[in-house]
Amino acid sequence: MSEFHVPVVDISPYVAGGTAAERATVAAAVDAACREVGFIQITGHGIAPAAAAGLAGAIDDFFALPLETKKRWLRPAAENRGYTAPKSETLALSLGVQSETRMKDFFEAFNVGSAASDYPEAALLAEHYAENTWPEVDGFRDRVDAWRTEAGRVARTMVGIFEDALELAPGTIAGLARHPIEVLRMNNYALPDGTTVELDEDFIGMGEHTDYGIVTILWADRAKGLQVLHGGEWHDVSPADGALLINLGDLTTRLTNEQWLSTLHRVKPPIHVVDGIGTIQRRRSAAYFFDGDAEATVGPLPGFIDERHPRVYRDVTVDEHIHAKLRGSRAGVVNTDAAREADRVLNAAR
Ligand SMILES: O=C(O)CCC(=O)C(=O)O
Ligand SMILES: [Fe+2]
């Protein structure tokens, strides 16, 4: 496996104030990372360690509940909210690929997001702004909301950096996210005690996918499992201490006509065999998806189409794009409008 590294960028000049030259250095580093890798580790984001500890504690408290209790917070597949039980989603279907033998992804999750009541001034497409469900776990809502607010701030900072890095007028991307669809998906990868894992290449925590929106802010613990597709091979990634992972979603790829890539990733925890019994180390993560306004139209921006770069995407609404992706992952309806992402998976080594 070739050497692979997710670039580290200190964004503090955009968070704590910096000179124009310092900001230009940050924007150039982000541009290079988005062209070459599509994943960045950021430091200097200004989120206090206590907020991350609060998030991790909320995740631990909720997922420790018995399965039957957690199922009280299940919601219909069409709503991207509440509890997802293990083996109920298949992320690979969001881009239309799935091997016939593969079982469903074994992650379990809890989703919260922006609700219609957060944006009373706007007439919204109800599907994307469902109200939240909160489990009866002490302090869960406060800890999760505190993280969500901070992740939202970082996402908006990243959008400003993207605009500078792409030499876009301020507001070009931010203007697509005035009442954004946003979702925080808290993931737990664990197996019930006593489960034996066979050494099966189709054993998957979360299937290969690109994220759907503008940008994702990913908190992850250090347990191994996250893999990123680069140069046709899968590479293990774990964030440096205190760093957050940032990755681009499909909408940014569409805006840039593929000059920046929504990088494919998956979660495939390593299997440890002890006395002939295979098991995995528990892993936790929380992906904050910043997806744009449901009714906004997204297509390649004018500066990104020329003779060398013909338009490779039609215009879509955020609603249309996210709807097709979620029907794949959550409702099992193969997404047939993601041929470009699917090709990248099919061309990769397993
Ligand atoms: O668990 C991880 O590190 C990745 C999670 C992820 O890719 C997602 O929730 O979209
Ligand atoms: Fe993801």
UniProtKB/TrEMBL annotation:
<keyword id="KW-0045">Antibiotic biosynthesis</keyword>
<keyword id="KW-0560">Oxidoreductase</keyword>
<comment type="pathway">
    <text>Antibiotic biosynthesis.</text>
</comment>
<dbReference type="InterPro" id="IPR050231">
    <property type="entry name" value="Iron_ascorbate_oxido_reductase"/>
</dbReference>
<dbReference type="Pfam" id="PF03171">
    <property type="entry name" value="2OG-FeII_Oxy"/>
</dbReference>
<dbReference type="InterPro" id="IPR044861">
    <property type="entry name" value="IPNS-like_FE2OG_OXY"/>
</dbReference>
<dbReference type="InterPro" id="IPR005123">
    <property type="entry name" value="Oxoglu/Fe-dep_dioxygenase_dom"/>
</dbReference>
<comment type="similarity">
    <text>Belongs to the iron/ascorbate-dependent oxidoreductase family.</text>
</comment>
<feature type="domain" description="Fe2OG dioxygenase">
    <location>
        <begin position="180"/>
        <end position="292"/>
    </location>
</feature>
<dbReference type="Pfam" id="PF14226">
    <property type="entry name" value="DIOX_N"/>
</dbReference>
<keyword id="KW-0479">Metal-binding</keyword>
<dbReference type="InterPro" id="IPR026992">
    <property type="entry name" value="DIOX_N"/>
</dbReference>
<keyword id="KW-0408">Iron</keyword>
<protein>
    <submittedName>
        <fullName>2-oxoglutarate and iron-dependent oxygenase domain-containing protein</fullName>
    </submittedName>
</protein>
<dbReference type="InterPro" id="IPR027443">
    <property type="entry name" value="IPNS-like_sf"/>
</dbReference>
